[in-house]
Amino acid sequence: MGEELADLVTGPVEPTPPARRFERIATKLAKISTWSLEQYRRSAENFSTFLADRQPGLWLIALAVGLAIGTAAVVFRIGIGWVQWLWVGETSEYVIDHIRGLPRWVVFFAPVAGGLVVGLLNQFVLSGRRAGAVADVIEVSAQGGRGLGLANGLWSALATVISLGAGASAGREGPVVHLGATLATTMTRAFSYPAPAARIILACGVASAISASFNAPIAGVLFAHEVVLRHYAVSAFVPIVIASVAGTLAGRVLFIGDMAAFQIPAYAIGSYWEMPAFALLGLTAAVVAISFQFALIVFDQTARSIMMPAWSRPVVGGAVMGLFGLTLPQVLGVGYEATDIALHGGFGLWMMITLLVAKIIATSVALAFRFGGGIFSPALYLGAMTGGSFGMIAAAQAPDLASDHGLYAILGMGSVAAALLGAPISTTVMVFELTGGYALSIALLLSVSIATGLHLAIHGRSYFYHQLETRGVVLAEGPHRFFLKTVTVTSFMSPLEEEASLTDRGDPRTVREFDTLETVLRVFNETGADALAVISSRDPELVVGTVTHVQALRAYNRRLVETSVEEHR
């Protein structure tokens, strides 16, 4: 009955002839075949590009870099212990009680003696008369991933080992990053990779150094992207992860083990009503980070204004370290023991406030007077003291709501470090990996974001970027400003086959051969010229080439395009 009604409405359905069926099947098969061939062609092209970019070799280099730098980080750490043993009689980082038991003259003169050795290295061996740190690595990355000499990097590491072993108040992670980057650039030169790959290899060295130093592989990956590369690219992710994992494995097998750096109780947020307190902690951490950066800048500028031989600067810094050792030995060296005590709630309120102020002064003096070291560990130290102090005050005001002040110490540690380093994502993950405190994520993210935002509002840049700007390297405003200030006329001008006299050519509008792209574009704008004569930097009457407005704009655009491609591959 249903079929009869259907026929009345639509008419009878004619069966499809076999030929039509075969034709449709053939058409579908042809389409599938065409699509398959297209996909095969694309896959073949992608794989050819993969091989042409030498990615397999890059992955192998990343593995080698990770293992080598993980091992070097362990040697670096052991070296600090050996130097420390010479005067403390102990290689462990937990030496506060040992220092208290030493003769006072040993506590005072050990940093002075260490400062003398470091000063001699600065005076006669190290370029720039100082040990390298993270800012140098960022600068090299911006300039193409090359430029760190192996010999200078090794001497720089030695100077830092002596500095920290002698009690200088500074961090070991920044110098390890510099050492890792130095070893990575050495491998880059050996295999002649282009600039984008060289930057990735450099970032591999940084990631493995961080992961081996902190036993924090995820933080190492993120720090390399966030601070050194300053972008996230899928093509860079794989080799950086390989290097970070390899560095972590080397560190764990040789020295660290698979335990977190700080073994703390299982803290938990007592109540979500504490969120305003966590936000206020972010504000407090911002004040500390801002003050620390101001102190680093002021002490550094003051030390620069004092005329003295390079070898004597660390000696003066060592005398200051000795005075701190006599009164507050908790501020000497890397400071992990004091940080650990704060995380466990082992200090009273006024002691933590005292150590907070003392550590800011001690670290500022140590770095200003050219001891080797970084600001990673001091930032964690200051954050732990800030958070612990804040937690005690909060508990006194609202004892029924406030969590343990050890929890606040963890949050403060991440907040101060993130703001100062300009690396909120990697620092947040680093604190998780250092403490195992993943349950605190919501509170940590809130305090870190507020601290970072307020620090940026006052300083406008991280301490690393401030260091670079004192050298004329401006990265905070983006790659376009960096290119304008670093690309010179010699890289895009048309050289003359035979040098000519400026008077004979009659070209009144000129630029010098080492003028920057910014200068050249400004001259074009002011004169309205289409071409300029390029004069020698040695002889202003000698013309060595010409440059057109189009050449200058093409050079600028080419670098912007190359940067965009590298960031999005």
TrEMBL record:
Compartment(s) of residence: Membrane
Keywords: CBS domain, Chloride, Chloride channel, Ion channel, Ion transport, Membrane, Transmembrane, Transmembrane helix, Transport
Pfam families hit by this protein: Voltage_CLC (PF00654)
Main location: membrane
Record domain CBS: where: 503-563
Membrane topology: Multi-pass membrane protein
Ranges that cross the membrane: 58-82, 102-121, 200-224, 236-256, 277-299, 311-335, 347-369, 375-395, 407-432, 438-458
GO cellular component, one term: chloride channel complex
Alphabetized GO MF terms: chloride channel activity
Entry protein name: Chloride channel protein
Source organism of this protein record: Acuticoccus sediminis
